[in-house]
Amino acid sequence: MSEPVPRVLIVEDEAEIRRFVSLSLEREGFEVHQAETLERGLIEAGTRRPDMVVLDLGLPDGDGVALIRELRGWSDVPVLVLSARTGEADKIEALDAGADDYLVKPFSTGELLARVRAHLRRRATPAAAGANAVGSAIEFGEVRIDLGRRTVERGGEALHITPIEYRLLTHLAAHPHCVLTHRQLLRSVWGPSHADDTHYLRVYMAQLRKKLEDDPAQPRHLLTETGIGYRFVP
């Protein structure tokens, strides 16, 4: 049997950009669906169940960040944001809401396709820490990472962990006591094109510490190695 064709949903109100992105993805062999509003985007995401969402933030009936937050309530599908907004605050807001990637307009076809392929590969591949440990778990303090079920609990209660947070946490946990540089983590979790985006790490490490550490200001397990990277101590 042949493998199923990946489905990509484009949510973009500018017809020319929507058509450009759609044609580029279709040439790569993807099945493409389109929406031009926030409301329609959520409907299409719910009915089509795409493997990837490509999203513009400036939609006529609302901000794309609201769509991400709504989507994250019931889906972990990778979301690649396409936006003309270049400010760090805009990027952090989208990523913090649950986006997996952020590409600034104008962008090249090659970079767009490379990022889509990378996210689809990661979606299809088990996390590095759990690739050979289905059904096993990692425990530290009150935290338990179930690698088979891809869930995280603290004190016996399930935590809401985003896909990016889960990949970052399990990658660190797979290398206990080792110092992992910013570049190593960015390449492993976000991909080679993000090797210099250290602000991604600051945002997600802060979120993980809030969820997992007793005192996020003085972490015991997710430690910062100043100017180098981070270290996981079980």
How would you portray this structure in words?
It is a single chain. With 234 residues, the protein is of the alpha/beta class. 40% of the residues lie in helices and 23% in strands. It is built from 8 helices and 14 strands. It has helices at residues 15-27, 38-48, 64-72, 88-97, 109-124, 163-173, 182-189, 198-212, and strands spanning 7-11, 31-35, 52-56, 58-59, 62-63, 79-83, 101-104, 137-140, 143-146, 151-154, 157-158, 179-181, 222-225, 229-232. The chain has a 5-stranded parallel β-sheet, sandwiched between helices. Strand 4 and strand 5 (62-63) form a beta hairpin. The radius of gyration is 18 Å and the shape is globular. InterPro entries: CheY-like_superfamily (IPR011006), OmpR/PhoB-type_DNA-bd (IPR001867), Sig_transdc_resp-reg_receiver (IPR001789), WalR-like (IPR039420), WH-like_DNA-bd_sf (IPR036388). Residues 135-234 form the OmpR/PhoB-type domain. The modification 4-aspartylphosphate is found at residue 56. Residues 7-120 form the Response regulatory domain. Keywords: DNA-binding, Phosphoprotein.
